[in-house]
Amino acid sequence: MAPPLARSLAVAALALLTIVPLAACSPAADAATTDDVYRIGILDPGSDIDPLTVADYNAQLIAGLVGEGLISLNAEGELESRLATDWTASDDGLTWTITVRDGALFNDGSPVTAADVVATFQAITADDSVSAGKSAFDGILASVAEGTDAATVDFTLVRPFSDFPRLLTGTNTAILPAGYEPGNWLKNPIGAGQFVLDSYTVGESAVYSKNPDYWNADAIKVDGVELKVYADVQAKLLAFQAGELDRIEATSDTVSALDVSQYNTITAGYNKFDGIFLNTSVAPFNDPTVREALAWAIDRQGLVDNVYNGTADVANDVLYFPNYPVQPEGLEQREQNLDKVAELLDGRTISFQITTDNQLYAEVLQQQLSAVPGFDVELNVLTSEQYYAGDNSVTPWLNAPLSITNWAVRGPSQYIGLIFQTGADWNASHYSNPTLEAASVAFDSATDDAERQDLVNQIATIQYDDLAVIVPTFSRAELLQDKRVKGEFAGPLDFYTGYSFAGVSIED
Q: Is residue 317 part of a domain?
């Protein structure tokens, strides 16, 4: 998922089993009762669901199956056309012009226009916006306006940003009609995407049918999708074993409990990193030697084996996914080194609590650190609702001394703006380094290959040395899938790949 904006769910809504009546239903509303429906298990996101503000992964999926963005990424990290058919930069790099797909419709039959694109991004980036996508554009996007004709939109930037099209694949960037009022989406789930939301029962399920008016409807072979809500991962595993679901994450727990030969294993590129965020403003992680000792204490390959079941690559505390075209040079690969840990701690015992909604990761990390002299580690495992609850000043994921949060694939400069930049909304480390920020700005406007390499080396060295966030692994999306499903997904079912079902079918 993308790290959520702090949000409050309505407690009363969570307490009730609520069936939400939906106004925008497809003519094929009964399709989800057929066998050609793809079934996914999710955890309960409650009823606070709106495309502009959703942050929790499960809520993003509920909205994302209905929505459609301008651009998406495939498994190789390449840009793919969705509601935008073309995107070009001006000579000075300060204006990006996108062309809106001709003939695209919202699921109420109205056309998708340049005015809708403008209104959506104005809503995302408004001063009073609470959109989880706002931070990606802060300091980069100056304005958005209709272009020289009705089919184009001009994004004017504060500074050149060569990866700007990647920002358009981000969270909460599905296009909504101009005049859309946030907060009422479940009453009328509007979108221009592959599916129509037919019903949503809080704590139970979300049922979709294929959108016959989708611009690429011929490529959507399934009749619908059903998201089934489960209390925890174990409940999802049991449901998958019973044939009630079509996919499940290929974690060590699931693989050890299943006969994997009965399923297809599907891989769809890198999908996230689980970052260990260290609050540099409070003890014990305001001490750089403690942060470094922790980084050398982690058994990274052990995380790959025991958390990801081998479906991850060992990382080195820098935010450059292995498929990004420019890679850092000259950094020693960190691995567990107990001699260095002992030297850095110098006889001290460091006590802290791991706060996260990722129970397996927390337990494995606790076991690793508890075996290393000098660490006294407790767990504070929360539900996703608890972890992201409250505003930014109090929410656990942004304020705990040590938190573990998963971040979806983005460009390296986006991570600077979201994670490292002084005062950024999602700066869980409470970290600031003007030199890092300046190097990132320079990289965004650089065109010479040698200069870009030098700047990446500078940026990566600062991340490696300062350790505001420890990045032990880069996760690859790997799933076990029922053999009745044919075809390949373009990438993980996530916002940056547009939740793409193109080419996937079911053959019973």
A: yes
